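[Automated response] Your request has been received and processed.

Submitted sequence:
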Amino acid sequence: SGPSSASLMVLRTEHLADDWSRISKEKLYRQVNQGGTRGNVATVKAKISNANRTTQHELPDANSSSLFWRNLCHAMCPELQVYKEILQHAKNLNSSQVEESITEVNAFCPEEGVAVRSCPGIPRFPLMRVPRRQFRTEVKKRLFAVA
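Generated structure:
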């Protein structure tokens, strides 16, 4: 596959209001939402702000349960690599915003670092080259196969 002209726009959960506000100023957003964006952005920002005030995260902090975080980071390694790749290719994020999000990951998963890395000890799910209509059946067979 060759170079793509597609743009990747990212909304980071931890910075949702700011990311949404920036994306809403993009030309593509204005073209898709021709009815205007000012009211929509204000409404979304208010809802995000309210949700952030009421949401309680019940996860242990990074220092209180190192075994919990070490195990979670190990299990999430492939997803964290994809997250870092997505951040690095996001058109709407500058380098300091990418660095900020990766630093937030590193606060809980210090072994991650900045670069995309391999995940030793995590098996890769084999690629499934099956027709779309058979995909669900094939996934069930592979996930629930008893060896």
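Summary generated for your ticket: The longest helix spans residues 38-54. The mean pLDDT is 76.
If you did not submit this request, please reply to this message.
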